[in-house]
Amino acid sequence: MMNPLYALCVRLRRKSAVERITGNFMKIAFLDRDGTVVRDYPDQDWANIKSPEFLTGSINGMQDLIKNGFEIIIVTNQYLIGEGFITIEQYEAFTEEFLKILEANHIKILDIFFCPHSRKERCCCRKPEIGLIEQAVNKYPDIDLSSSFFCGDSICDMECAENAKIKFYGIHVGSDPISNLSDLADIVSGQR
């Protein structure tokens, strides 16, 4: 049976031969947010966090990914909203500050897809489900999953990439872990 995400990509990307030759497909770096790009905290502490603390190598790593032709999409589980640890307004304020800091560092995030549901809900968007990746492919049908990858710091990130059939790079997780996004940029640019 064909992977449903792959089938969706095939359906959305029926391109002419000319478009294939000119390379109009998008290479995406799907990045988890908490623990990958910014510091993660115990659930109960998130209500007091107003500004992101970027992890070592994340700013430089994202800058290098962009230089290597990747667009960046953040895919993040935010069960903290559904479980009442933070409000949607707190999430939005944190995200606004997150984007402002990235923009000041010349990093443009193509989009952010997040799952606000609690861990008890049976939604299709909470990683390791592929709903967030499907949302991205639906919104940006030129995404080339074969040239894209996912980077995260958890087993559910790794399983999401496996379920979506895309390459995974794990920060301190997986069979060939990396230390930070700067390491990842070195790998995809062929310097490591």
Principal-axes shape call: globular
Query: What is the count of β-strands?
Result: 5
Q: What fold name goes in the CATH topology slot?
A: Rossmann fold
How many angstroms separate the termini?
36 Å
Helical fraction: 25-40%
CATH class: Alpha Beta
Overall number of domains: 1
Order of helices and strands: HHEHEHHEHEHEH
Instruction: Classify the beta-strand content into a percent band.
Output: 5-15%
Low-confidence stretches: 1-22
Q: So, CATH architecture?
A: 3-Layer(aba) Sandwich
Mean pLDDT: 89
The CATH homology group name: HAD superfamily/HAD-like
Q: Helical stretch count?
A: 8
Structure at a glance:
By secondary structure, the chain is an alpha/beta fold.
Plain-language structure description:
The structure is a single chain. The chain is of the alpha/beta class. The chain has one domain: Rossmann fold. 38% of the residues lie in helices and 15% in strands. The protein has a five-stranded parallel beta sheet, with helices on both faces. Mean pLDDT is 89; it is low at 1-22.
